[in-house]
Protein 1
Amino acid sequence: MIPLSVLDLVPVREGFEVSDALAEAGALANAAEDAGYKRFWVAEHHATPGIAGGATAVVLAHIGHCTSTIRIGAGGIMLPNHNPFVIAEQFGALDGLFPGRVDLGLGRAPGAAPILGQALRKDLARASEYFPQDVVELRAMLTGDIDLPITATPGLGAKVELWMLGSSLFGAQLAAQLGMPYAFASHFAPEHLDAALATYREQFRPSAYLDKPHAMAAMTVICAESDAEAELLATSQDQSFVRLRSGDPGKLPPPVPGFRESLDMGGQAMLERLGIARAVGSPQTVADRITRFVERTKADEIIVSGATYDPLARQESLRLTIAALGA
């Protein structure tokens, strides 16, 4: 069976607070570990009321203490928001706490609206131009493969597994050039999936860290006992996505029967475009859709996203999904 991992945005539900979201993320990570998932990643997002993972390294320390064997990591850190030295220290510290378990996925997008640059006191457009250089510098701070004038402590010598993230061809080309594993955000940007994976594999150059291409693709996966139950659970995420794209993000709402049918044609089209990387339904439906997706993409790993208003429903979704695929 293809390795499965989990991507969590640490959703804050309507009627609940950040403290609840963090507790639920820890419980979800524990359930993922028990079910046999390979990794549990948290994504960096900012200034969004319904997402509590902004301080990603801090959240990962919490996740690490809730688990014992599953790999934990950032999916990802948006490097233009930071400087490489600070990230090297943070993830060096995480490796010290949870040796051999830490992943660091690096992305180029800011993870928030343009006003974030003002809050961070950074020109994010300019910072994005230095992204390739910053990736190389960060890797050197962890590995020591380039002689630098300053040593990150913690950081240097940390056994952190570095990944390149992407939703376009840029990340695929850079991952190939640097010989890094590559994770594509097909759960929200499926249009460039096939071209990005082809580019990554065709242009890949072996490195000291990876001898051949290794690609992970993201899917929205919500599994329940029946197709109807899973589709109802998925309406919470559907609502959040539509609100986000409409410029009105909020906390994760309860499910709403018939939500998709209530949308205008533009809203329905917005959700339909995500169907390429979506597996929502009964165990058989989910297994069939993931299997077809893997056959099409030849992905080496799948990372599953998909929030539910009931946190226990998502734990059950993880268990049903991995069981359906024959774990």
Note: DSSP finds 13 helices and nine strands in the chain.
Protein 2
Amino acid sequence: MKLNGRDISALVARPDDRIPAVLFYGADAMRVALKREEYLKNLLGPNADEEMRLARFSASELKKEPAMLQDALKAQGFFSGKRAVFIEEAADAVSKIVMDGIAAWEQGDATIVVTAGQLKPSSSLRKGFEGHSSAKCAPIYDNPPTRAEIEADLKKAGLAHVPMDAMDTLNALARDLEPGDFRQTLEKLALYKYDDDTAVSTRDIEACAPTSAEAELDDILNIVASGRADQIGPVMKRLKDQGMQPVTLTIGAARHFKTLFSAASDPSGTANGVGKLRPPVYGPRRDMIVRQAQHWGERKLQIALTVLTDLDLQLRSAGQRAPAMELVERSLIRLAMMAQR
């Protein structure tokens, strides 16, 4: 039986040991692994490995010794509690072995948990689970976590007081980060707020969010748009040390100023223009874009975009011999000086 997103969340949160087998599959191995890990933890409890209630097989091992699966299903250990057999990196080569195991499954046997990469609709493994009356097929798509999933993760982390603006910031962060990085950010946030009963703020989230070259890029674009020319040099040095390419920096600057121009040129006002941006922006970043767009105005933003277009063409020119990063830095200083006027 194939499950939708809501059914998968319900299954992972409240596993049913009457289900003989579950298949988690998807293109993003990290997302699949996180769902499988959460499902097994909720099904077996925290000490399954130590109590030998979880057997692990790779698909290659199972292919060599097919009998291992049914032996593991029926095996009884020294510890009481639910048991599971986990088969990782499965493919059609082991679909018959897995389906035979499901056919032999009886109440009280170990639950079969299978993970796989992207499976085509014609996959025998996928079709076997989708067509079974009791086994569950859980496709994991490359979508960011839903608001309900984020709220559930916050609750697990012990973060109860999360106002709307902080939740909007977390939603935006979930779209930008890989699943594992986002989960680590929530864990770090929980430690950051340990023994602190005040509500989670956007500043708390920013303090715990991972720092990357993209964050440094945002920093320098905000410095330029705010007219702080004296701060450009040190940030440019960090970007250069991180391997940021001049063309990438130029494209990022053009994208930022196009965003400001789109907001500033909205006939209903800058704030309304920011509200129409896609993807949407929230919290302090939204306020900052509104301020910058209002400060620059439509006319100066047109000039800024012309400067960046000329810079991009110069960098891509075959006859360009001047140091590329220095050209970018000079143009950014010029823009910062424009912001001061």
Note: The chain has three domains: 5-139, 147-208, 213-339.
